[in-house]
Design goal:
By secondary structure, chain A is an alpha+beta fold. Helix content of chain A is about 25%, strand content about 25%. Chain B is of the alpha+beta class. Classes of the chains: A alpha+beta, B alpha+beta. Chains A and B meet through helix 3 and strand 32 of A and helix 12 of B.
Amino acid sequence: MKFETPATTNPVDRMKVVGQARSRIDGPLKTTGTAPYAYEHHREIENVAYGYVVGAAIAKGRINAVDTASAKAAPGVVAVVTSGDVGKLGKGKYNTVKLLAGPDVDHYHQAVAVVVAETFEQARAAAALVRVDYVRTNGRFDLDAALKTAPLTDADKPGKGEDRVGKFETAFASAAVKLDAEYTTPDHSHAMMEPFASIAAWDGDALTVWTSNQMIDWGRTDLATTLNMPKEKVTFLSPYIGGGFGGKLFLRSDAVLAALGAKAAGRPVKVAMSRPFMANNTTHRPATRQRIRIGTTKDGTITAIAHQSGSGDQPNGSPEAAVLQTNLLYAGANRLTSMRLAVLDLPEGNAMRAPGEAPGLMALEVAMDEMAEKLGMDPIAFRVKNDTQVDPKDPKRRFSQRQLVRCLSEGAQRFGWSQRNATPAQVRDGRWLVGMGVASAFRNHMNMPSGARVRLGTDGVVTVETDMTDIGTGSYTIIAQTAAEMMGVPADSVIVKLGNSTFPVSAGSGGQFGAANSTAGVYAACVKLRDAVAQRLGYNSADAVFDSGRVTSGNRSAALRQAASAGELAAEDKVEFGDLDKTWQLSTFGAHFVEVGVNMYTGATRLRRMLAVCAAGRIINPTTARSQVIGAMTMGVGSALMEELAVDKRFGFFVNHDLASYEVPVHADIPHQEVIFLDEADDKANPMKAKGIGELGLCGVGAAVANAVYNATGVRIRDYPLTLDKHLDRLPAVA
Amino acid sequence: MRAFTYERAKDASAAARAVTANPAAKFIAGGTNLLDLMKIEVETPTHLVDVQDLGFDKIEATREGGLRIGALVTNTNLAAEERVRRDYGVLTRAIVAGASGQLRNKASTAGNLLQRTRCPYFYDTNMACNKRKPGSGCAAIGGYSRQLGVIGVSDSCIATFPGDMAVAMRVLDAVVETVDATGQRRSIPIADFHRLWGDKPEQDTVLKQGELITAVTLPKPLGGKHFYEKVRDRASYAYALVSVAAVIQPDGTGRVAFGGVAPRPWRVEAADALLPRGAAAVTARAFQGATPTKDNAFKLPLATRALASVLAEAKA
């Protein structure tokens, strides 16, 4: 199905199943520990040996020699594999850096070897016996130093450099009110609960990998590329995933080393990353250094806006695209955005939940707050005044839907924004300085082709097969709801099978594109299956109504299962997209409101209340969507208040590489969270009329927290995370 | 983790003998810290002597009017004990401010005293660490040191003792009771129990190899108001940036110890005497000679402010 013109009325509009709040159908499996995660496929595979990864002890240099003799002689060891044992490996399209070091070492904890043994404990003990002789060379680990000579870059159009509208410099110079401020965000770790893990089993030259990966086809393809083998010989399975946040968009070393280890061992091998490897072996969200300039008239109309960001990555890497939302979020005749990319020898930077917008809005939405204060305007009024319904660069392009103003105004009412004291540091509750903050939320919606196969069994059961993944988001549930709505059956009579490379290729999970696109793919396959059903029953498919387990056409009616009585019916299709997303700007919007308390003695910040109002097209399942948003809000609190991978610029690594030292919020950090979805259906997006939500919930949260902290204390911190040491000396004297 | 042998000791002196006889042996109680460190080979004992059957799991009144806490009393049980909550509130507050419910269920009183530093360089065996590998150097000096010590540290180590319970015990003037392989018993004031690093940061405490903690005694109750103010970036399950254990009497006198700042719970009795003059006077004396890094210099004003918070609450 090619989606080229806006959706008209379709069966999903009935909203009998789609749009209804439903608990996750995989919930009982998860809560009883019976959903098999990547490391846990005990039933399918026998005689599994255990692989343990040896990580590089240096950040930059060369492996002079590897002595594996002691490791190989250790109890239970089956095989030891280093780069010297496997010939030249390929490199996956989505990997910036190779996944097995040798002879060069590109970053700290890059995999150097895998040790395979009969038990996990034997493999781990033997891994410590691998002796690697390194030649250390100087690396580039200091972002600020490296940015001084870093070139302009553009994520999509290398070398293009700057994105300009009008004459920013002239307009800014003559603006009545101006802000010129710099903001920094640190490197972030995905820190998902389930570490990277894979089991690999060879059958001749065919390879099956049970893994934890958000993008089945990308992972399968890159694994085949890495191993120099045909993609058709690789089966990639990832039915349950314990979180990813973008870290699992890509093939990682666990899958490669499990495959290489299994080859060497002559039997299946499982490999899991230990937690201390997670920060440096894998990818992370890169740190940013951002400069924002805003110029307005006296009445608060933006006349000039510039957002420039610098970040670093490994050679041939990509920037953290922190400036992109600034092209679209607010009006203004004169505009400039640009990015610089420094070469660093820290671990590979890559996508983490809302890449670009998450750190970008942490800066832009604080700048908007600062500007509103300069203007003496309410920060909501300032945003509303500069709302735009068109792409500022190309005013012919309208947003397909844009209810930012309504998100802000409804949120303000719900949250009691009018109670906020615009003068900071005025409100106290015992030992707490209390403040409120707001920020806009913005994230583009992306179209991705997505396929599915739908079967109607002879027993009348509808089964959906797609390589879509469920990373804890609710994909199983919303796909069941979609198929149920389309085929006119209850959701609990739909079987959903995901995460299997033998199924049609889907959008996968990432960039908040998963839910809307994968259900649109299921919609497309269901349209085909409906045709097949109607044809089998001798009905005109154009007027056939699928409802309550029956198919009705005019005055004829039959049970759905009757269509399959002579044999199973199956249909496969995918949704593909025309250029509606060029004609229209497809984006999602929201507003985040937070209230914080800052301990007037210690400076520690604790959240008191949070509210998100989201406008993101049709909400397919309010329960799973709310879970996505509150999880994202929690992640936003982490990025605002505590999350930071600490860089040791001497040795070139992230020092706090475990969950004791890389702090993420715990339950005690998170107060009451309220989420409101505006009633929307975006007919320009897809036949589901749905858009993404999982990243919108994060976008702007950090800035809302920062603005609330400022409102509480009167001290502006522009350097995340907002830990107490950054404002302690500017808080009121207490001793 | 290296392979190790394991035995479950039947009595205290046999346990002490087993560990004394083998320099690569260690006691294990709850194991909440030791096992984690063994998995990453920061600790590499070849033999473990499990002391959980030794029966040191009671809290008893002493003749002096205090309490004797068995070495194996869990953190959960110690914090919840009625006499502790009533008479030694600072201790209960400190314990429940630490770790998580699950860990406190497993962690023992003696083990809590013996927990090792959380310096990230100590945890990474690729990094130089005099505490982990004597003579190898200290990667933390000049590195990421936000969490590390500001006083009592040395040129060879700037790590802290990370615990909470011991900070309260320091305020209470607890005494650590031990027995060695010869049956010799020793009573070590908590003030002397944890060492300053000097040039031997590998030795956290004054215990000799094979010397086994049997109990911790608390003198008779001090009265007064009890406080444990723990400052950290997140609200729970994090080590203290700075903590303040204090017992404040109605006349404004009292005692105070600081956690998260030094190789041991940091208390300076001469600073206690300045409590009636306010937090700044106390910390000026307590932290005299401090040697913070650029990363952790904030701990000094933070200690003052955290104490000011306690003193304000004491007055309220």
